[in-house]
TrEMBL record:
UniProt-listed SUPFAM superfamilies: Protein kinase-like (PK-like)
Source taxon at top rank: Eukaryota
Species, as recorded: Symbiodinium pilosum
Name of this chain's protein: Cyclin-dependent kinase 2 homolog
GO process terms (BP): G1/S transition of mitotic cell cycle; regulation of G2/M transition of mitotic cell cycle; regulation of gene expression; signal transduction
Binding locations of ATP: 51
Catalytic activity: L-threonyl-[protein] + ATP = O-phospho-L-threonyl-[protein] + ADP + H(+); L-seryl-[protein] + ATP = O-phospho-L-seryl-[protein] + ADP + H(+)
GO molecular function: ATP binding; cyclin binding; cyclin-dependent protein serine/threonine kinase activity
Amino acid sequence: MIAEPHDDFDMLERRFEQRYEVTEPKALGEGTYGKVYKALSRQSNQAVAIKRIKLNPEDDEGIPSTALREIAVLKELDSEYVVKLFEVFCSPSKLVLVFELMENDLRKYMKQVNGKIPPPRVRSLCWQMVKGLEICHANRIIHRDIKPQNLLIDGNHRLKLADFGLARAFLVPLPKYTHEVVTVWYRAPEILLGSGVYSLGVDMWAVGCVFAEMATGRPLFQGDSEIDTIFKIFQKLGTPSETVWPGVQDLPNFKANFPQWRHKGWENIRTTKEKVGDSGIDLLEKLLAYAPKQRLSARKGLEHPYLADFVP
């Protein structure tokens, strides 16, 4: 159900209050354009999450493009691995999105367990993350902002992709996209090095980063800027050459005088191998391949030995 755009604020509030009751005044979270609250459906008694977005009626841009993008993507996707959008209420001054309620996100969950996720759960959460992206990519949608805060988890440790504000439908051939996407710790090296053309591989690189973080308890490439992050990547995975990444030297931000580091070796990168074993390390290496074309796709990721025999 979508309220008519010309409904005024009072009408929107009345319509909303007829259907939902906000049960906790304290926001569950806050994003760029609005706050998220817990509410209850008066009709079904189901708990839901409400995202309130304030609009400026005098602003020519109207509804933020991120909100429009999220609505469009979520109306198209229908999967148990993607958060569900139930309703949209709109007035000239406010937009209210009603989502299914998920108790937690991966960042908060990791804090609750002090970064110590049991190995079987690491595998389960990784499978669900990859499965969600396989569905997105099959529908020609790039998420572009995979990170622990955008991976929601319920009490049964079911994981769903959320926050599609930066998502894009992609075409062939691929157009040039802005590089200001993906939180810097999970940003693919081709974006960090200034490539204007990128594809589904940026999501899969982020999956590798999140997978490693679940295994080690800490972000893998915790840089405080783009250049610091790219150096953190090089220090662990080695400075890329034309041999391992054809065309890297042609990228706008690549410098011939970058320090030359060698791959540190996964046995020297915290406790990754202890949590995921040899097959998990192999998956990680294939997700974090420098050359985007060599990175595993979501579909191939599900066929990898680490995930292939997982039963959800």
